[in-house]
Amino acid sequence: MVVQKYLLDSVEIKRLSGLIVGIKPGRFLRAWVLAVWCLIPSPGAALFAQEPGDTTAVSPESSLLEQVYEHRISLLQDSLFLTHEQLDAANFTVQQLEQRTDTLADSLTLAQDRVRQLADSLFRLFVLHDRVVIENRQNLERLSILSDSIAQSYRRENELRALNDSLLIILARTQNHLAKVSTTQKAYSDTAAALRNTLEALRRELTFSEGQVTGMYERLKTAEYHPEETAIDSTVDERLVKYLRELVDYQLETTGLVRILRAKVDDSEIYAFKLDEFRQYLARAALQGSTPEALNLLARTYVEQDDPIRGTLAYLKTVFIYPETEAGLQAMGLLEELVEKDGELGRLYYEVALNPDSLDVGEEEFYRFLNYLNHVRKLPHVTARKWFIKEARQFLDLYPNIFQANEVLLWIAQAYHAQGQYHNEILTYAKIRRLHPFSRIIPRITYAMAEVTTDNLKEYTTGAEQYALFREEFPNHEKAPAALFAQADIYENELRDYQYADILFRELADTYPEDALAPVSLFRLAEILHLRLASLSGALVVYEEILANYDQEPETGILALERLASISREIRQYDAAVVYYLDIHQRYPEAQERAVAAILQAAEIYESHLKNLDATIHTLHLILDNYPDYPRIRSIQRRVQKLQKRRG
User: Fold this and answer.
1) Four-point Cα dihedral 597, 602, 604, 610, nearest 10
2) Which of 112, 125, 444, 562 has its CA 20 to 30 Å from the CA of residue 149?
3) CA distances from 118 to 98, 104, 106, 283, 382 (A)
């Protein structure tokens, strides 16, 4: 029975062990204590295990089993001690995990606060975005209204320009009339004042009747308010003209003194004095009074001093501005003798002499003066250009507000250019831009400023800026592509900025694809990529683009194919090079010289690089079959025969 009891106890131990595995760590120690307590035999355990009435002593086998059982219990106690240590370590680990959990909880709280702040910021951004969208929509509506206004302004531009020109003409004529009237009014007022003073003196000194004095006084008042009814006293003008006549012939009262001066002083000094006198009178007269006669006297002085060009120009001025006066007819007669010595001046003279209607441009003197300037500016003489500049400046001084003033300034700038005075030319262009900002010639002079700055003054950076200014102000002008091309050319060849030149050439091709400069700019772009930036693949792409878009022009297509073939040979893609060369023959057979040259290049590649005699012979037969009139056809035939012999 004891053995059976111990066996039962071992089974119970297994059961208890299984239960202990499922017990939580906090109850693990109590479970083990209970199990051990149950297994330790008490003093009455053996008696409790006997059957009732059984008094048999415990056998030696049972004591041996008890020892074994006690040994096992000791082992379980040792295991329980180790398990207790592991439990302490587990509790410590749990504490650390709880601390980490608290730390993570704090971090999570901070993260939640941060997320909440980010959510608030995002909400404010959404609100701001909605506000910006609304403002942009309003701005677009304003821009639409503004674009409509600009379109209407452009449509009315021509009408306003014509109206402006008409108003300027009316204003110029009004100012000229007012200038004459004001001068006349002053003379009448002075005369009336002098006469009033005289009458007052006469009234005191003489015994005129009151009625006579009153009548004269009333007539003077009428003259004061109606100056056109009184003639101008030209006594001063007559004296000046008489002085000029005597001066030109040295017939002054001090003739002897003049002769002494001529003997002791260089004639150039007296000559300069005479010219100054004539110019002073002409400037004072301002195309009034005896100006025609004074012009003839000035011309005569030039001729006597061996300056026939200026003399002719002075006579021509008399002819153009005063063709129907006595001085004008006299100048026409004197011109016939002078022009025989100069072909260009003779051409201008006979143009006027044979076509007198060219002088009939209107009754107003400024129209005749303008016609004179328009003829003189075309003369090629250096002296004539200098003369023209002075005359044109005098014209602008006399008539500063006429609408042709911008044209006259343009003529002056062109005269400066012909004389090589490029700084003066640019300054004159700048004057036009400032004084006449709405003139129709503004695009023309803006482009001319860029050309002169670049080509003549060699100021390349400033020239590039001028071309950029032209494109900015006139993006739709017919010269806008040329300005962009010139700017790109400066950056490539003068400033050596190949990256920016690349950008500008590409911009031209993309912005103005229909312009004649578009394929040229693409060629320049491909050359920069190939030779300057070492981008062979980029150059191939650009040449393919040229071939795809501009192959209608034979020269453009052939050149693109030749460049493609050349680059293909350079990178040793010989098959592609052969295709490009033969494509020239297929696309442009009418260009015989270029087509035959391309076929020969393809044959040379087959023979030298691809080592294909059959393909070489077949390629050369393209020349024999398609170009029998080729001048060197016999040499091609002999070459084919040699290749056939080599092939066997």
Assistant:
1) 170
2) 444
3) 30, 20, 18, 83, 80
Is 456:422 a contact under the CB 8 Å cutoff? yes
pLDDT above 70 covers a percentage of the chain that reads 61
Residue located via tokens 């190939």: 530
* Burial (CB count <10 Å: 0-12, 13-18, 19+), residue 642: exposed
d(CA 432, CA 430): 5
Residue 465: closest CA among 491, 429, 445, 497: 491
- pLDDT of residue 485 exceeding 60, the answer is yes
Give the E-state strand segments of 160-212 in sequence order.
none
Find all residues with CB under 8 Å of 561, minimum gap 6, and list them.
Answer: 547, 580, 581, 583, 584, 587, 598
Query: What percentage of the chain carries pLDDT values higher than 90?
Result: 35
Q: Is the separation of the CB atoms in 73 and 40 below 8 Å? A: yes
The first and second tokens of residue 305, run together, are: 């001093």
Cα distance between residue 183 and residue 177, in whole Å: 10
Looking at the chain, how many residues does it have? Answer: 648
**The whole model's pTM is what?**
0.56
Other CB atoms within a 10 A radius of the CB of residue 178 amount to 11
Angle between helix axes 291-304 and 235-249 (nearest 10 degrees) is 10
CA distance readout (Å), 561 to 533, 576, 581, 630: 21, 11, 7, 22
Coil, helix or strand at residue 238 = helix
* Distance from chain centroid for Cα 325: 55
Q: Are 599 and 618 in contact (CB under 8 A)?
A: no
SS3 347: helix
Where b means 16+ CB within 10 Å and e means fewer, 66-94 reads beebeeebeebeeebeebeeeeeeeeeee
Rounded CA-CA distance 592/101 in Å is 90
Tokens of 388: 């023209």
φ/ψ of residue 439, rounded to 5: -70, 150
Report the C-alpha gap between 277 and 250 in whole angstroms: 13
101 or 463, which is more confident? 463
Cα–Cα distance for residue pair 269/261, rounded to 1 Å: 10
Using CA atoms, how far apart are residues 311 and 339, in angstroms rounded to an integer? 10
Average confidence (pLDDT) over 452-463: 94
Q: How far apart are CA 347 and CA 344, in angstroms?
A: 5
State the pLDDT confidence band at 304, using cuts at 50, 70 and 90.
confident
Is 454 in contact with 427 (CB distance < 8 Å)? no
Torsion of CA 477, 525, 456, 446, to 10 degrees: 20
Query: Could you tell me if 310 and 387 are in contact, meaning their C-beta atoms sit under 8 angstroms apart?
Result: yes
- DSSP letter for 534, please: -
CB neighbours (10 Å) of residue 640?
A: 19
Q: 3-state SS of 99-151? A: HHHHHHHHHHHHHHHHHHHHHHHHHHHHHHHHHHHHHHHHHHHHHHHHHHHHH
pLDDT at 281 over 50: yes
Q: What's the distance, CA 641 to chain centroid?
A: 61
Residue 538 CA from chain centroid, whole number: 25
